[in-house]
Every structure is written in structure tokens, then in C-alpha cells.
Design goal:
The chain has 11 helices and 8 strands. By secondary structure, it is of the alpha/beta class. Helix 1 crosses helix 7 and helix 3 packs parallel to helix 5. The longest helix is centred in the C-terminal third of the chain and has 24 residues. It is globular.
Length: 296
């Protein structure tokens, strides 16, 4: 694959004055996304951390139009914005729905699936901090196995695997689906630039660590995001038309799953058996991804 040149010095459309926590991965995600997409972008923003981060009306730290909508309606709202622009003959604006994992994996899944089935010409982005962070760190279906949240305490951690939202979206046979990480901004921006040039439904899933919810130091956001990729916990890949899989970054550092888990307080209660189960699941998913890439 020919790599698109990205410019990390592109104009800043995610300005100062936002209300994010220190070390917020979701804020980095928005910053890089808008650097790639540019000013001709409109955002549908459901209830999530970012509906607070952007600032209260009439203030907003984003240099593009933002339409706040209900928790479950990001994809439907973005579809409506796109239809309105089309009726006016405005084709050069990227309409982006920007939702957390709660508004993607759970509450917003019905509207997202419907938009994908219709192949709406929108870009849906999930910044994934693996729980309902804005409302108090409650479990979502994006929360990993055995992780602590306020609704899955250490005495009763989450017993289920994280929902595989990327394969769910790929199963809709949409034109483009990709994973990205704030730890690898060039890869992230390339995927946004690629998605910008595609007509139809596009889905990008960004891992965005949350220092408060992950119980980690705020200066480790980027490093832990990188560790997730290097340990194969969160592989970076893309899927075109639901069938062509391609790994966009192959791990280069010897980071184990155990090392990744150890630096986060939300996993401090894990037993050796839990760690082994977590690692086995990571390896199984990595091997399956490699087979899908080889057969594409």
C-alpha cells in the first residue's frame, strides 16, 4: 500500500480552552482527526465526554460546526446533515459523527447499523476509552475482560470479552472500516485522509486512553496507547468493502500483554489465571486477523 503523506503541523482546529481532563486521549484523537479532515467538516456530537469537552454554549473550542444531539442518534443526525447538504448541492463537506464507546457499541448501535445498512455517505468515529467515563466510569460493552469499573468492582470484575465492533461494522460490507490509536498519529491521520476521499459509510475506531478511568498517570496516555498496539491488544488495521483486511502497523517492540495490563490500576486485581486468559484471547484474535489479511 502506498502511504499517504501526512502533516502533523497542519492547522489546529481543536483549540485551547476545552474542558478535558489532563492527559485525555479523546482530545488528542479529535485534534489529529481535524488536522486530517480540515475546515470543511461538520460534526454530529452525541452525549459523551466530548459534549462536555468542547465547552458550554455559546463557546466551543472546535473550529468547525458542531451539532449536539441525543445519545443514541449520532449516525441518524449525521445522515440528516448529509441529506441537507446534498439538497443544497454542497458536496465538499465531510460529515462526521463523533461518539464514545457508549454511543457506538451500546446506545448508538441501532442508528449506526441502520446507517451502515443504507451506506450513508458519512464518517462515523468512535473514540474508545472503554467505559462510560463521562458519567462516572461505568462498564460498557467496550470494557475489556476483567477490567475494573464502578459497576464492575474488583470483587466482581467484568466477566465478558470486549465487543468486536470492528467486525460488526465490516460485516455490513461498508466501503471502509479502520482502527487507529492516539499513540500513532501518522497512521491515524492517513486513515482519516483515506476516509475523506471515499463516498459511502466509513467507520474509524480510535483507542483513546482515559487516565481517570484506566487508573493511570496522566502523562502516560500516549505510551499506554502504544503499548496496546505493540502487545497486540489493539491491532491497527483496515477493512475495505468488508472483505479486504490489511494490517497497517506491525508491532516492533517486545511488549507483553502482562506489561500492558500492569501499568493500569483498573487491572491490578487480576490473578495470573485472568492474565493468561486475557493474553490467550489477544493471541487468538491476532492470529485470526493475520489469516484474514492473508486470504484477502
Amino acid at each position: 500500500m502506498t502511504e499517504t503523506t501526512v502533516d502533523l503541523r497542519a492547522p489546529e482546529l481543536c483549540g485551547p480552552g476545552h474542558l478535558a481532563c489532563q492527559g485525555c486521549g479523546a482530545t488528542l484523537a479529535m485534534r489529529y482527526a481535524l488536522k486530517a479532515l480540515g475546515e470543511r467538516t461538520m460534526i454530529a456530537l452525541p452525549a459523551c465526554c466530548w459534549s462536555v469537552i468542547a465547552g458550554p454554549f455559546p463557546y466551543c473550542n472546535l473550529g468547525v460546526p458542531v451539532y449536539h444531539c441525543a445519545f443514541e442518534t449520532a449516525a441518524a443526525t449525521a445522515s440528516g446533515i448529509r441529506a441537507g447538504l446534498d439538497m443544497q448541492g454542497i458536496e465538499d463537506v465531510t460529515v462526521m459523527a463523533w461518539a464514545g464507546d457508549g454511543g457506538t457499541f451500546d446506545i448508538g448501535l441501532q442508528a449506526l447499523s441502520a446507517a451502515a445498512e443504507r451506506n450513508e455517505n458519512i464518517l462515523f468515529v468512535c473514540y474508545d476509552n472503554e467505559a462510560y467515563m463521562n458519567t462516572g466510569i461505568q462498564r460498557s460493552s467496550a470494557t475489556p475482560f476483567a477490567a475494573w469499573t464502578t459497576t464492575t468492582p474488583e470483587t466482581s470484575p467484568k466477566a465478558d470479552r470486549k465487543k468486536d465492533i470492528d467486525r460488526i461494522m465490516a460485516a455490513h460490507r461498508i466501503p471502509y472500516c479502520a482502527t487507529a490509536s492516539v499513540g500513532y498519529p501518522e497512521d491515524l491521520m492517513r486513515k482519516f485522509l483515506k476516509a475523506k476521499g471515499i463516498v459511502g459509510m466509513r467507520f474509524i475506531h480510535i483507542l483513546a486512553p482515559c487516565p481517570a478511568g484506566w487508573r493511570m498517570p496522566s502523562d502516560m496516555t500516549v505510551e499506554i496507547a502504544r503499548m496496546a498496539v505493540e502487545s497486540k491488544v489493539f491491532p491497527l488495521y483496515e477493512v475495505e468493502d468488508g472483505v479486504r483486511y490489511h494490517i497497517t502497523y506491525h508491532p516492533k517492540r517486545p511488549v507483553s500483554v502482562e506489561q500492558y495490563l500492569k501499568v493500569q490500576g483498573r487491572f491490578k486485581h487480576l490473578t495470573p489465571e485472568m492474565v493468561a486468559q486475557f493474553a490467550a484471547d489477544v493471541q487468538e484474535r491476532w492470529e485470526r486477523l493475520q489469516k484474514e489479511c492473508a486470504s484477502s
